[in-house]
Please model this.
Amino acid sequence: MFKERLAIRRGAWTKPTCGLAPSYIQANLVIVPYMNAYDFLLFCMRNPKSCPVIEVTDQGSYTPEVFAPDADLRTDVPKYHIYRYGEWTDEKIDIKEEWRNDFVSFLIGCSLTFENALMSQGIPMRHIENEQNVSMYQTNIPCKGAGKFHGNLVVSMRPIRVDRVADAIRITANYPSMHGSPIQVGYPERLGIKNIKSPDYGDPVEIKEDEIPVFWACGVTPQFVAQQSKIEMMITHAPGHMFITNRLDSEIEDY
Amino acid sequence: MFKERLAIRRGAWTKPTCGLAPSYIQANLVIVPYMNAYDFLLFCMRNPKSCPVIEVTDQGSYTPEVFAPDADLRTDVPKYHIYRYGEWTDEKIDIKEEWRNDFVSFLIGCSLTFENALMSQGIPMRHIENEQNVSMYQTNIPCKGAGKFHGNLVVSMRPIRVDRVADAIRITANYPSMHGSPIQVGYPERLGIKNIKSPDYGDPVEIKEDEIPVFWACGVTPQFVAQQSKIEMMITHAPGHMFITNRLDSEIEDY
Model:
């Protein structure tokens, strides 16, 4: 197993995973009871841009057989958030005590995965340079509902230099299972974002004069929606504190 | 509504839909009781190449809100197959009498959709020229299981002239939600197909001397697997007798 996951498992790394283990595919984690799993999977299927499901474990299993058969989803995320009836009740660095045999775990593609591709083509990621978490915002764009699950899209924002915006769109469009191309370029107010300097999740990131804010659908969407559904129990990664899989970015095309 | 669907609804068209309403996206239909819907959706999610789900109706609804809000899934397929406990019991041209409030309908992408693109780029489809159904075969390739649902991949075969095989692969790769690129080229025996002249579904299609048989994952897979699972009730389209949606091939990229 690679050293970054071991550090996370031991509790030695509890920070965001932006820039950690570059080239490995990172994933959002949402764990719900089996009785809510169908509606949640259907919600994801109906909103593939924000909720690109890459793996669903069998009921009660904490092993992602496809993306990381040697991992343990109870320990291998740097920080977990626990929600009961929609209320955030705990933040933990493992969930061994909370684990139940009726839990189903969803791994959902994460835009941190394509940041490596952007950087390798000369498009810098300021939040990584500054060792920050990416900026994330709730929007006014409704998702398609499924059963109990309804709510608005959450987006991540990266400031991109004007002359590289087209490249950033082209490059990320190659990662459809990691949110793909942006959903909007340049107009936060039309997404219902009142103050770009005050993200709802993550850290504020400076936008320089020759840069445009570019917005991608974000994997926090499903956990935001699941939280609003007030289901009895839900466990997620803390925003930005992702599950790092065994697969490489370069394999994503095969998926 | 376009005339082809009206003809199907009235029972005036009960033949395969290959080549019918060209440019419209065609879909496989699988209807299962709600109690089997989660496992079936999970099976599809785990086998995206053969089971690219494009829409799931709400429980009890026969309206595909996204792909054809004016359609009625009880009448708008030329021919239905009804299975009880895995046994094929009936063939019907509508399922109004069989409809139940716990039914969930799955629309699954279909390779008939990309045939239009192939033909428009000068790659002929012999089964369409001959007014036949496409040839389909069971293979020895296991799908990833989910709950009750286990089984092998079913493929469709089209003979392609040697010098156009690369083009056919390139073109169909642009339709990932319609089975995308082929799974194999040229070696039916390695897929466990004993006699290429005797397909398990559809019609036998001649392979000429300068042609290679090319195999695509087929949307009959999920219904074959659902049949093997012996669930209490399942209704599908008859192979090749697809549901024609309101959406155009050219829109598929947007999905």
In short: The mean pLDDT of chain A is 92. The domain at 117-220 of chain A is CATH 3.30.2040.10 (PSTPO5379-like fold).
